[in-house]
Amino acid sequence: xxxxxxxxxxxxxxxxxxxxxxxxxxxxxxxxxxxxxxxxxxxxxxxxxxxxxxxxxxxxxxxxxxxxxxxxxxxxxxxxxxxxxxxxxxxxxxxxxxxxxxxxxxxxxxxxxxxxxxxxxxxxxxxxxxxxxxxxxxxxxxxxxxxxxxxxx
Length: 153
Hints:
- This is N-acetyltransferase domain-containing protein.
- The protein is built from four helices and six strands; from the N terminus they run E-E-H-H-H-E-E-E-H-E.
- By secondary structure, the chain is an alpha+beta fold.
- It has one domain (17-147): Aminopeptidase (3-Layer(aba) Sandwich), CATH 3.40.630.
- A six-stranded mixed β-sheet has the order 1-2-3-4-5-6, sandwiched between helices.
- Strand 4 (90-102) and strand 5 form a beta hairpin.
- The mean pLDDT is 93.
């Protein structure tokens, strides 16, 4: 767990973002099975995006439960924020995730990560998600210096 809030107590953390292409909602254990399916179908893509991590290699459903519980707790403590990305055509379908973490790099306040399910990459949705996520962070969140590791945003 991270050790401090990344937003002030008076900041109202968004509970949802709805666009024509995506619905973002806090990532909780309620999305366990759907999140696990999306992650496991996207393993190769995720290896390329996450900093020096072998996540989610060989992750079990139980390990995903722990991971989602951690994200949910971090959200409630305001230490980091994870959002599931749902399809507006079918709100039961998890198509990706967005994450906001404190940055280890003192030039930035936070690091932002996002991904779309591997089978949807050819649709251009990941680029759209990146642009939407960046605009949302800049407009709605209090951060001035946001790093998007391994992205050209």
